[in-house]
Amino acid sequence: MLTINNLHVAIDGKEILRGLNLNVNAGEVHAIMGPNGSGKSTLAQVLAGREGYQITAGSAYYMEQDLLAMTTEQRARDGVFLAFQYPVEIPGVSIALFLKTALNTIRKQRGLPELDAIDFLNLMRNKMQQLDMDESFLSRAVNDGFSGGEKKRNEILQMTVLEPKLLILDETDSGLDIDALKLVADSVNSMRNPNRAIILVTHYQRLLDYIVPDLVHVLLQGRIIKSGGAALARELEKHGYGWVEAESTSRQVA
Amino acid sequence: MSTATKQLDELIGREYQHGFYSPLQTDSVPRGLSEDTIRLISAKKNEPEFMLDWRLKAYQHWLTMAEPRWANLHHPPIDYQDIFYYSAPKSEKDGPHSLTDIDPELLRTYEKLGIPLKEQEVLAGVAVDAVFDSVSVATTFKEKLAELGIIFCPFSEAVHKHPDLIQQYLGTVVPYTDNFYASLNSATFSDGSFCYIPPDVRCPMELSTYFRINAKNTGQFERTLIIADENAYVSYLEGCTAPMRDENQLHAAVVELIALEGARIKYATVQNWYPGDKQGRGGIYNFVTKRGDCRGNNSHISWTQVETGSAITWKYPSVILRGDNAIGEFYSVALTNYFQQADTGTKMIHIGRNTKSTVLSKGISAGHGQNSYRGLIKVLPSAENARNYTQCDSLLLGDKCGAHTFPYIEVKNPSAKVEHEASTSRIGEDQLFYCTQRGISTEDAVSMIVSGFCKAVFQELPMEFAVEAQKLLGVSLEGSTG
């Protein structure tokens, strides 16, 4: 579904990603772990189409399309979804209006009829129940005055409503208490299916106790230096990132 | 420049869509201003003596005045002798008696603007007193209003039919000595609307006027006077568009509102005059004096404005809270794009006891636009327990525009409570990215963010006007409604 080859990305002339390779197949859940400043969030933002990054080399293909040549909204309409680490506030714009606009744009792209207000409301009621969210949430302005947990829950709500094909969660676990974390994990797990791929970007192993990944990658200084199964995350938790770093350096020396 | 910023620039750089010019025959008095011009205007309108005297006094006073210079506005000097002070669409007889008498070209102009009079008459239930250039050409629903004793007619008609009311109220809120532009208006005003609601009458429909500047080089100087007698209620809508012209056109209107005991007046404006081109050439100069007088106890006046047009806007709809328990409100959305400049705000003058005022101002700056909020809250010693709440928010699109806030607060009574809140934010790439990452187009995203920002003001507009306001914001920002 997603193939990244030798991706180099810089911001303001400073290289952040330095030859990143990643292959994600439909049906897989990948976790990308790494310390602060390793380039995790940059990867998430670049895949979603954030402006301001210079792609200096490499390629990324998403469902046989040149992902990096697509506009942000094209990517979204074709099923790329980013759950933001820091969702922005849009005062005066209700979640209902925001999400209905987004959903109908995406449905149009998929050749589905647009939902009218009543069908949309029924869909939302259903999804919000699953997330243990109050219906009054719909009339609140997008992220305006939300607590950290509410913002993350709003991201998950959008995810379940928009039903993306490639789901990227950027530090979605940060700022969540254990109950909220479980709820988020349940939602993500319920989204797992053979046609969908999920990339979890996270600093801690905590989230991976609840969403067990097929593959774990360690990102360090803009490169994936180690990949492995779910067990790798637990080793990281035990030994810290320094351990992988030392291991990779010694391998390079050898 | 990033793609998102570029897209933003393209979106806000769309051409003005109401730029067309109707080739009507006009009947103008010669260019320039003198006592003779004023006598000629007065004679053309066949005015009674008192009206001419008032105009001449205003002119004499105007000669002693200078243009105000305190506003945060920059424009080349205006040559007041190079302006036509009167032009009226020519009609075959003395005046049109029904819609069928009206120049079809004129009706087509209204249709292009999306205000088909005939449809409005039937469907919207809005009585339209349409001011095209300087003479009112159509007045509808008059009979229905007359049954209730409501007078709603062109100002020039009121001068003839209701001279007592005119003499009693004209200039009592905005005297002819008030300021440079108000004096100029008092001397030269061509027409406008007059409205009187008798005691205990609730006007059953929204009253509406569409102003439009059409003839080349014609300053338009309307004069509007609205009186709500004791316990009366009226909601008045004013909407404006003007066709594209290369030379700057001067516009100096005066609106006076008078609310007697227990009366309520709601006055809403949507202004979408030609803002000038992308290089800042042309556009309307809009110097307006709007003031309401809450003359009686428990009276209530609200101003709601959506200002998206004009090269220059100089406008401070104000309320004098004279009666006890009077309420004054000001809700404003002002948008500046291209090289537009707006210096707008309000004055709330608290005189009576327990008077309350609310000010909610939303300024949006795009392109090279400069947007200033200027507001005065004045509490006089007599205004025991006066209350004011002011909120003033600015939204910036792009990095070449500016937002400025000039609040003035003068409190002379220690029991007063005056609050002022201000904020400035930018439609950031963060917000746009968030929306586009959900599949929403940049165009819809900008429209959504701007509408969200203005929501609190739009809620104060009558339903059909809120839709119109959204459309005008759309024209000014994206070209179509989101």
TrEMBL record, chain A:
Pfam families: ABC_tran (PF00005). Residues 2-246 form the ABC transporter domain. Transmembrane segments: none annotated. Keywords: ATP-binding, Nucleotide-binding. NCBIfam families: sufC (TIGR01978). SMART domains: AAA. This is Putative ATP-dependent transporter SufC. SUPFAM superfamilies: P-loop containing nucleoside triphosphate hydrolases. GO terms for molecular function: ATP binding; ATP hydrolysis activity. The keyword Nucleotide-binding applies.
Automatic annotation (TrEMBL), chain B:
Residues 211-453 form the SUF system FeS cluster assembly SufBD core domain. The gene is sufB_2. This is FeS cluster assembly protein SufB. Belongs to the iron-sulfur cluster assembly SufBD family. Residues 140-202 form the SUF system FeS cluster assembly SufBD N-terminal domain. InterPro entries: Fe-S_cluster_assembly_SufBD (IPR055346), SUF_FeS_clus_asmbl_SufB (IPR010231), SUF_FeS_clus_asmbl_SufBD_core (IPR000825), SUF_FeS_clus_asmbl_SufBD_sf (IPR037284), SufBD_N (IPR045595). GO terms for biological process: iron-sulfur cluster assembly. SUPFAM superfamilies: Stabilizer of iron transporter SufD (SSF101960). It comes from mine drainage metagenome. Pfam families: SUFBD_core (PF01458), SufBD_N (PF19295). The lineage of its organism: unclassified sequences, metagenomes, ecological metagenomes.
